[in-house]
Amino acid sequence: MMILDLPRSHIILIILWLAYFTIHSILASVSFKEFVACKLPGLIPAYRLIFNILASILLLPPLYLIARYPGEMVWQWSGGWQYLSYFFAAAAMAGFFWTLRYYDSSEFLGTRQIKDNRTEILGQEQLQLSPMHRYVRHPWYALALVMLWTRDMHEALLISAILITLYLFLGSYLEERKLIASHGDQYSQYRQRVAGLIPLPWRVLSKHDAAELMRSREKK
User: Fold this and answer.
1) Quick check: 49 and 113 in contact, CB under 8 A?
2) Residues 53-65: pLDDT tens digits?
3) SS3 124
4) Which residue numbers in the chain have pLDDT < 50?
């Protein structure tokens, strides 16, 4: 189906998602943060928090369109497949909350940067490796894909799922450029040994190797 053949609400939905991804990428980029640091240096300690707030607010328009104009059902899980989809979605949600214990939530939200009055551009987060990081480099993205693709799909959700999936792959690439800039060889070595978003049996980090990688950080 050509894009121009889609209902107007779906075309607007595509535009809103593309706008969201563009704005999100710009705001997350080091170059834009450097620009803000040059023009408004006093804003830098609150940058992460402001970024998170804006990212959440800008999600509202596309989410509204999905709920208001879902379109026709494309596929719906049934029978045993329905229970299996529920299981994987619940497991992904549980995995997400489980990995939270391995992150500094105040650092992630941006409140610690305000408290410590941090003005660095790249940030000083230490490389964190939860158990899931032994299997994929971006466990939250991977879990988000599981939760997304285990849903019943109407047209608006399917369009959104495709666009979000593409952006998560692109976003993981852009994020890794910053991680390499922040953590150097340590992250480069980790990147060579572990898969990105889809687990691969031949690219899994053992507990011993993960511990060695973390110790290499502590020695620096």
Assistant:
1) yes
2) 999 999 999 999 9
3) coil
4) 1
DSSP state of 171: H
- Cα(26)–Cα(21) distance, integer angstroms: 9
Could you give phi then psi for residue 178, rounded to 5 degrees? -70, -35
Q: CA dihedral in degrees (101, 105, 107, 108; nearest 10)?
A: 100
What span, in angstroms and rounded, lies between the C-alpha atoms of 33 and 45? 11
| CA 53-178-41 angle, 5° bins | 55
CA distances from 37 to 31, 32, 113, 180 (A): 10, 9, 14, 21
195 phi/psi in degrees, rounded to 5:
-65, 160
